[in-house]
Amino acid sequence: MMRRIHALLGLSGMLLLMVLAISGAILSIMPAWDRAGAISPPAAAMSVADLAGRVAQAVPEVEELKRLPSGRIVAFHGGTDGPAASVIDPASGQAVMPYAQPAFERWMTNLHRSLFLGDGGRLAMAAGAFAMLVLTLSGLQMTARRMGGWGRILEPARGHGVQRLHTDLGRLAALGLLLSTLTALYLALATFEMIPDGTSKRPAFPVVTTGGPALPAGQLAALRGIDLTELRELTFPNPSNPDDVFHLTTADGAGYVDPASGALLAWQDYSIAHRSYELVYMLHTGEGLWWLGLLLGLGAISTPVLGVSGGVAWWSRRRAHARFAGNIPAGDADTVILVGSEGGSTWGFARTLHAALTANGHKVHAGPMDHLARSYPAARRMLLLTATYGDGAAPASASAFLKRLDEIAERPSFPVAVLGFGDRQFPHFCQFARDVEAALRQRGWPALMPLETIDRQSSQEFARWGEALAAVMGETLTLTHVRERPRTHKLQLVARIDYGAEVQAPTCVLRFTLPKGGLLARLAGRGFPRFAAGDLVGILPPDCDVPRYYSLASSTRDGFVEICVRKQAGGLCSGFLHGLQPGDTLEAFVKANPAFHPAGGGKPLILIGAGTGIGPLAGFIRANRGCRPMHLYFGGRDPSSDFLYGSELAAWLKEGRMISLATAFSRVKGGGYVQDRLRADAERLRELIAGGAQVMVCGGRDMATGVMAALTELLAPAGLTPAVLKAEGRYAEDVY
After folding, report:
1. Phi/psi of residue 151, each to 5°?
2. Residue 488, CA distances (Å) to 17, 191, 524, 587 in order
3. Phi and psi dihedrals of 72, rounded to 5?
4. Cα separation of 46 and 52, whole Å?
5. What is the pLDDT of residues 574-633, one digit of tens each?
6. Are 696 and 608 a contacting pair, CB within 8 Å?
7. DSSP assignments along 291-304, one per residue
8. FRET label pair with 622: which of 18, 280, 317, 522, CA 20 to 30 Å apart?
9. Which of 521, 597, 584, 485 is nearest to 552 (CA)?
10. pTM (2 d.p.)
């Protein structure tokens, strides 16, 4: 739902938002421009009386002095051709140049405030500010979700091209946009008198009782007690009216000064509402804070770029939902296929299924899961194909599905089957598909088939599911899905370290050069994306279109791509990787893994891994330049053969990037497994975890099961369990 609101507001209001943002960005330059043209005040403190006295002598027909937010002093006075205004040098009181607000600035201000349409235009611009506020908040929420939580929102974004540009620029501009939109809405509400702006009338005009000749302006006692920096306006008495007085406005309030005695006749402090309005106005315009104006302008000028990049990203997702040949309207279809997809790959499987069913004579409708209708009059079956996003959440095209499901009171007569797509390396494999299946069963929707899952987009598993579907339908159905080859980059091996041959577990650490690419290539989506330790690199062995994924032991900042690979008997990809020598190349791409990144903050990390599972954990330690407390538990077979990263870990201990290292080797005398070391350190671990530490586990499934059992046992006295830690986001697994 949040993504839909974000896209709808952005696309429908793009033109208005661009006018609002560009005009605001131009106006944001004006305070700095005025500041640059202001005459520097005298080094010594100057009172309003000093200024008024000098100007009265230098400009005899002066009527009013005004100090602008930039610090510029303007005098309004009589001239040879009528009323005139001049910029004043405070040191001498002399007029140094004519003053007039530039016509372009007036025009731009009217455009920004009202589109030259009066109150209707002001309402439109207020609506634009509200839309921008919703876009900023929803964009931040989606970014936090994509990054793995609010604690990681400032971490380097992964991905490439326009999507990454949109994310990075949105985060940079968010604070300025929030300030601009919130203050704009406040000012709009004040303009339409929906909230008080605190504008109060001056105190009642006094009756002058002193009488006598007027004192020189420089001798007025009330003005001598006010510093020039506090002045807003000073209006001189009308020479033809003996009862007139000085009208004074300062940063604190307004009042009147007797020209004969120099006494303050009446005074009224500003109300809290008025001070609040002035503060909000200053924060919105930058007047008086020229540097803030420039910062707000940078945020505003990002809006057109965000609009274009967001539109391109939206169109890319739309293209991923490629048109289905012969797609039947939902109300006429006997078979309904609904798709939940984040990156677009699930739509490819849906097209294959749609084409096969259509070839068999069925009337098939396909669409996003978010388009679930209340009824399908002609439907005889429904097929739900869905991926899972992030940490078990709904993908983009299914974000509103469960809510729509709740709104359907009457269960359908046709049966439903759910097919989940995911990657078993992720801890919440096909979790959203499981959630959908559970919701359907809870509401009594009839099942066509049991829930099935597809691992890593396996065409073979999809074909087998098609055979099961055909058997249920009583017909022949062949699903031959040809996957689109992902965009890859060429990586060249520069170094390798071999381990484990002596213990029959050949393992190597492979380091590849980071592909070079310019800014334009990255923006166009052709550059190698940013990545962090814990993300995945997909590798395509020769003559194979099915990638194999390996956890990254490095980040973009390290300047290289590094993985740990154990050679598996008959393993196509592991055998290929173990055969590489420095100088050889391969084809690879990066896949984000936000569920396996350390949480933000300074709380300790407890890293637990065995064998090649140390890869991403070593990457976390290598990147720990701030010396966050990290404790590593590592398991292997023999320290003389398969102690991966042994020398590096020793160096990181000395540098403080790691606090402690505990090892367990199963094939040495007195050896054991990593879970044994956990039990031996039970008291320390309980204390660390009770104090907020995060636990991260990487390695084989059997090892992870043993680790969870050990932690369940040792945490029981503290009233904690791994399940509780998972719910709190303090227990993460990367298991294979």
Report:
1. -65, -15
2. 37, 55, 14, 6
3. -70, 135
4. 11
5. 999 999 999 999 999 988 787 788 987 889 999 999 999 999 999 999 999 888 999 999
6. yes
7. HHHHHHHHHHHHHH
8. 522
9. 597
10. 0.59
Q: Which residue has the tokens 């991905």?
A: 159
Would you list the DSSP string of 219-246?
A: G-HHHHTSBGGGEEEEEPPPTT-TT--E
The residues, any chain, with a CB within 8 Å of residue 110's CB and separated by 6 or more, are 116
Alpha-carbon distance of 36 to 29, in angstroms, equals 11
**Residue 43 one-letter amino acid:** A
Q: What is the largest CA-CA distance in the chain?
A: 113
Q: How far is CA 154 from CA 108, 148, 592, in A?
A: 35, 11, 16
Residue 47 in tokens? 């009172």
- Which residue in 85, 88, 83 sits closest to 98, CA to CA? 85
Contact (CB, 8 A) for 588 and 491: yes
C-beta separation of 607 from 621 below 8 A = yes
Q: Rounded distance, CA 320 to CA 303, Å?
A: 25
Report the distance separating Cα 260 and Cα 237, nearest Å.
11
Beta carbons within 8 Å of 174's beta carbon, 6+ residues apart: 136, 139, 140, 299
Q: Read off the amino acid at residue 468.
A: A
Residue whose tokens read 């896949």: 591
In sequence order, the 6+-apart residues with CB closer than 8 A to the CB of 130 are 181, 185
Each residue's pLDDT tens digit, 489-526: 999 999 999 998 888 889 999 999 998 765 555 555 56
- Which amino acid would we find at residue 396? A
Could you give phi then psi for residue 60, rounded to 5 degrees?
A: -55, -35
Distance between CA atoms of residues 99 and 88, nearest Å:
9
Q: Cα separation of 344 and 320, whole Å? A: 5
